[in-house]
Amino acid sequence: MAYKIVEKRQLVPDVHLMNIEAPDVAAAAKAGQFIILRIDEEGERIPLTIADYDTDKGFVTIIFQEMGKTTKQLAKMAAGDELQDFVGPLGKASEIEKIGTVVLVGGGVGIAPVYPQARAYREIGNKVISIIGARNEGLLILEDEMKAVSDELLVATDDGSKGHHGFVTDLVKELLDGDEKIDRIVAIGPPIMMRAVAGVTDPYDVETIVSLNPIMVDGTGMCGGCRVNIAGETKFACVDGPEFNAKDVDFNLLMSRLSLYRKEEMDSLENYKKGCGDDCKCQ
Hints:
By secondary structure, this protein is an alpha/beta fold. Helix content is 27%, strand content 32%. The strands form three sheets. Strands 6-1-2-5-4-3-7 form a seven-stranded antiparallel beta sheet. A seven-stranded mixed beta sheet has the order 11-10-9-8-12-13-16, sandwiched between helices. It has a two-stranded antiparallel sheet with strand order 14-15. The chain starts with a strand and ends in a 9-residue tail after the last helix.
């Protein structure tokens, strides 16, 4: 069965949104879960967090950044093209419950998986404060969408081109030092950003959840590639997560494992740019 791309558009440079016709996945999807896709029979499997889903239309929304060979290849596809595989939903859904005031923090492309959580938390009566950040205004995504599902939206850019001049962690600390009680913080983005949020919240009595993105192959817990260290125990992000309590995560190990195959990833990308296969030996 092939999965049709029904919509494809660029959000900001190198970041794209696709709606995929996958009614079975859409019917079962929940905030916090992910899919694994494969472009064709020769393609690699890549995990992407579900950014949205429409059960009536049978569409699943994914948002991705051009980084390696497969995301570069995916970015060249258009509406009407088809994907070989689109498997999901995978992973445990976010534990959405009515607890009071929830702060959702999204950095870069991490804003995409934060969006369905913000909507879900607010729909059941929580106060939602969202913080989104990027290097500059031109790289911010889903600002209007996040505003629509938040009681308050705060923006941070590294260069100060929009909102707070600085990092999302600055705004997190301001909220924690304020008068309002924060009941939960959810942070999704690059590992270094999530580690920084965990560091800021550690001295405070507030639950902090992060969504991990380790190397992943099968997505069902068999390969062990996505193993992470959580409170001294080995867990598989694909079946035990992807969300964990931030204070329990060994971020140094996570980031170290993410760089294990950097050379192979770069070689694959260069061969793709030259029009060669992954086993190309040309210079």
